[in-house]
Write a structure and sequence with these properties.
246 residues, alpha/beta, Rossmann fold, seven-stranded mixed sheet, 7 strands
């Protein structure tokens, strides 16, 4: 049963909508922080590497972004289906292209074709450092000159319980009592035990990659990025790195 859950974690979460329902507020805040680091000009094209259910598209919509094109790639067709549904229900819609891609086989994107790349909790699932290096090189080639990468990966200080604590603090600060108690008593216990603890185990067992800040910087620099910003996000459980192309 454990093996089945590990192999189908993402597919089942996207297909059942549980991934979106159980997303902790701290995760949403880290995504908003990453999106805020990207440029915002009329008609820009953004590539979302490992887009999942397309939560980032909703963040762009919330910002009333000038986004012109959103390209979302993920290995899970269930996530891409959720992205299509999210796009069709949005009141103001950019041009959206969801396509299936296995990052273990590289990133098939035309050279100099996008203005910005978002890779929010995606590359860390590639356990082979050579594969991660190739994907980062592919990302750099896909970016236009002066393009921006916003990269978020879990840190070696990843702490599932701390993520929940920070999320509850953020939810409480929003002063919506009903939503806070629903999350505290019902949703977040499920998030902790079926989501965050699962990810924590994969990181501890090195099935997925957790980072020091120095490791993230080194990987991005090796791919040819100039590092312009780093910060801790996600309840001190992840790093956000912003890189630029020449």
């Amino acid at each position: 049963m454990a093996g089945f859950y590990k192999n189908n974690y993402w597919r089942l979460g996207f297909a059942s909508s549980l991934y979106d329902l159980l997303t902790p507020e701290s995760y949403a805040e880290s995504m908003r922080a990453a999106v805020d680091c990207l440029p915002d000009f009329a008609g820009m094209t953004v590539l979302d590497v490992g887009c999942g259910s397309g939560q980032a598209l909703s963040v762009f919509q919330e910002k009333r972004s000038a986004l012109g094109r959103y390209i979302g790639t993920d290995i899970q067709t269930s996530g891409l289906h959720r992205l299509r549904t999210r796009h069709s229900s949005a009141p103001a819609r950019p041009w959206v292209l969801p396509f299936q891609s296995n990052l273990n086989c590289g990133l098939a994107i035309k050279k100099n074709s996008v203005d910005a790349v978002l890779a929010h909790f995606s590359l860390y699932t590639l356990s082979d450092p050579a594969v991660r290096a190739q994907v980062l090189r592919d990302v750099k080639e896909a970016l236009k000159p002066g393009g921006t990468l916003a990269l978020v990966n879990p840190s070696i200080t990843y702490d599932a319980k701390n993520i929940i604590r920070e999320s509850l603090g953020s939810d409480k600060a929003q002063n919506k009592a009903g939503r806070f108690w629903i999350k505290k008593c019902l949703l977040y216990p499920l998030t902790l035990h079926f989501g965050l603890k699962f990810i924590e185990r994969q990181l501890q067992e090195e099935f997925w990659k957790s980072y020091t800040l120095e490791e993230m910087i080194a990987e991005a620099k090796a791919a040819g990025f100039e590092i312009v910003r780093t910060q801790t996000v996600y309840a001190n459980s992840a790093y956000l790195l912003v890189g630029k192309t020449d």
